[in-house]
Amino acid sequence: xxxxxxxxxSGLPAGLLGEIQTPISTEPMENVYExxxxxxxxxxxxxxxxxxxxxxxxxxxxFLRKRRRGRDCRAEVxxxxxxxxxxxxxxxxxxxxxxxxxxxxxVLVLEYAAGGEIFDHCVSEELLPEAQIIRLIRQTLEGVxxxxxSNLVHLDLKPQNILLTSLSPPxxxxxxxxxxxxxxxxxxxLREILGTPEYVAPEILNYEPITTATDLWSVGVIAYxxxxxxxxxxxxxxxxxxxxxxxxxxxxxxxxxxxxxxxAVDFIRKLLIKAxxxxxxxxxxxxHPWLWQQQQICLSPDPTATRPFRERSCGTKWAAPPExxxxxxxxxxxxxxxxxxxxxxxxxxxxxxGDF
Length: 356
Ligand code: ADP
Ligand code: MG
Prior knowledge:
This protein is α+β, with helices and mostly antiparallel strands. 29% of the residues lie in helices and 16% in strands. The protein has 2 domains: 24-111, Phosphorylase Kinase, domain 1 (2-Layer Sandwich); 119-342, Orthogonal Bundle (Transferase(Phosphotransferase), domain 1), CATH 1.10.510. Helix 3 runs antiparallel to helix 5 (213-228) and helix 5 (213-228) packs antiparallel against helix 7 (262-271). The relative contact order is 0.13. The chain binds adenosine-5'-diphosphate (ADP) and magnesium ion (MG). Residues 39-40, 42, 45, 47, 60, 62, 94, 110-113, 117, 160-161, 163, 176-177, 179 line the site of adenosine-5'-diphosphate (ADP).
């Protein structure tokens, strides 16, 4: 049973957009593009590399299934398109080029991000130098700030959804995957249970109101992962992960943060705070001194200021069991089932304090 609130005007679930400008062509896309391989896949989508025959330009085609679990999900796909359209002037968001429809899928032809996911840099033996991480986090914040200015929240920010325009040297970031994004404000409060356990904010687990601050938590998780190579809340199973998030159980030990500047730790501490209202906004984050340390770090003669190799082994946090397909699905529509499955009796206050 769903308790999702409906917008009285559109009849859509709260926060979903229904109007698009991009025409959806029913012409076979193979007439226009040559499909040359797979770039990634989720539970309901496959993303393929394709080349526009006439121009030779490379794009990423996201094939989204219209029916999921016997339910017509065309509205969700249209919403994803509408969000991409709203973010069209946001340079940090992947551009929507065209759309096609087949019997089973709607295909979004997207700007191609050739450098892959920043996730690869989190799990690589060779972590990025801190100056590069600062640049990528600053760009991510720019993109998020821009979205928030339009009252859009992404709600699925994670290293798999932040791509790079080129791999080596790392290019600029492009935010992808707006399947869970929502428009705030139209019909009052938005509460939903969605996202990916390791990356979601406590308010999502507690079925509390979603705000722009929810995305800032995820930026904190991404920054943590880039600097340490570890996922801060990943437990051995889903239950443990939820508990870690709910209790803001984060390892800030010297061991985890070897060769990472104090300012990086300070930045992350200020985002991984349980109360959403105590987290800084994207704009406030951009003025944090860590993000203005780049030159100092680049020019530092201290070889420990950049980290050519990860200090810690991939260790326990990455050795978590293979992804549960349910996690990929992202929606747990009934807050009652949520309450039963993820009940937390103990709550601790978040570490960190103060404003920037
Ligand atoms: P899902 O909703 O299934 O998670 P995403 O939009 O996140 O779908 O795409 C899945 C994966 O496909 C991404 O994590 C990324 O690896 C790859 N991908 C998506 N969009 C692009 C793109 N524009 N360019 C290159 N790779 C992409
Ligand atoms: Mg994704």
